[in-house]
Amino acid sequence: MTKHFTTAVITRSLLLFWVMAAMIPAFGQKGLRDALGNYFLIGSSLNQWQSAGTDSAATAVVKKHFNTAVAENCMKSGPIHPEENRYDFTAADQFVDYCERNGLVPIGHCLVWHSQAPAWLFRTADGQAVSRDELIRRIQQHIKTVVGRYKGRVHGWDVVNEAIEDDGTLRKSLFYNIIGEEFIDIAFQAAHEADPEAELYYNDYSMALPAKREAACRLVKRLKSKGLCIDAVGMQSHLGLHYPDLDEYERSIEAIAQCGVKVMITELDVNVLPNPRSFNGAEVSQDFEYQQRLNPYPNGLPADKAAELQQRYLDLFTIYQRHHSQISRVNLWGISDANSWLNGWPVRGRTNYPLLFDRQYQAKPVVEKIIQLFEKDRK
Ligand code: XIL
């Protein structure tokens, strides 16, 4: 009797547990991609070790949460084209293969950028400044080779990165100084010819600045008026806890969408550390001296700061949700805090906490909250 009773209780409990487990929509089982993937692509940049597949903790996060990825460095012109007659596709090939193996839409970053460009690009063999025609030829050749190699595999390219200054004028980069503003047109034209199916993007930081968003819109309209293809503008979104003003940020999403292209959030992270006084934007050449006061949380983020970070992310994803019909991709700049570039920039040797996954690749509580935000919207 007792034995039968016990067996019945255990069986019923198991049954009940099974039914409840099936009813609760798999708490903690859903990833960002399940909830947000109905609205836009969601992903991260991958460093070389991650896309080589040697970082198994990263792969676990990627498989559960993301459906797109960007190469953090290996497709930039310096690493991929170190000498005029030598390309190094090793890491870029691994990145595209990794994306295909793991269900990620691969995005190429970036074809024309003043940073991480190889020195040979702007110099002749005898060290003279390259001529306008020759630089145009080199850009076209570079784009044709890189985009052509991944034709039909890479979904879209950041064709030109960071060509606009914060005041809305064009950056006086070597591309601009030697060619003039048409370097942008030439790059978009070459990318389209190399893969007519690939989406093409303009990408920049500090896009909440009115002058910068207006300049990006002018650029989009100018390219379109010349019959060139541009599909989206990327707002890098290297943000802080208190900058930029989120109303301005949201206005930029609106304004860019009004120009007739999609908006992409391409390099999202939220810096929680104090900034050096003259720090600004996301120009990668900034390099400030280390000071202890700039690295206040080497052993963990205090609870009040963690709460601020969580709220900041919720505010941002609320904006993305509101504008989901205008946004086609949201991409974090790194998977875990351990490999964020913000540990080394703009001050080397700091401990930053800017991403959605902690140093052990565990989802921060905000991940579940973001999922709930988007699940709620679907009901
Ligand atoms: C950064 C990478 O994360 C670093 O590893 C590298 O040392 C410098 O570049 N804007 C961009 C990205 O478009 O390519 C930059 O990536 C961050 C700022």
- Structural class computed from helices and strand pairing: alpha/beta
Q: Give the number of helices.
A: 13
Major pleated sheet: 8 strands, parallel, barrel
Give the overall shape: globular
Mean pLDDT: 94
* Second rung of CATH, namely the architecture: Alpha-Beta Barrel
Strand numbers in spatial order across the main sheet: 1-2-3-4-5-6-8-9
Number of individual domains:
1
The CATH class is identified as Alpha Beta
Task: Calculate Rg over CA atoms.
Answer: 23 Å
Characterise the protein shown here.
The chain is globular and about 55 Å long. Helix content is 41%, strand content 14%. By secondary structure, it is an alpha/beta fold. The protein has an eight-stranded parallel β-barrel, surrounded by five helices. Helix 12 runs parallel beside helix 13. The chain has one domain: TIM Barrel (Alpha-Beta Barrel). 41% of the residues are buried. The structure holds (3S,4R)-3-hydroxy-2-oxopiperidin-4-yl beta-D-xylopyranoside. The site of (3S,4R)-3-hydroxy-2-oxopiperidin-4-yl beta-D-xylopyranoside has 8 residues, from loops. (3S,4R)-3-hydroxy-2-oxopiperidin-4-yl beta-D-xylopyranoside binds next to loops.
Brief summary of the model shown:
With 379 residues, this protein is α/β, with parallel strands linked by helices. It is built from 13 helices and 9 strands.
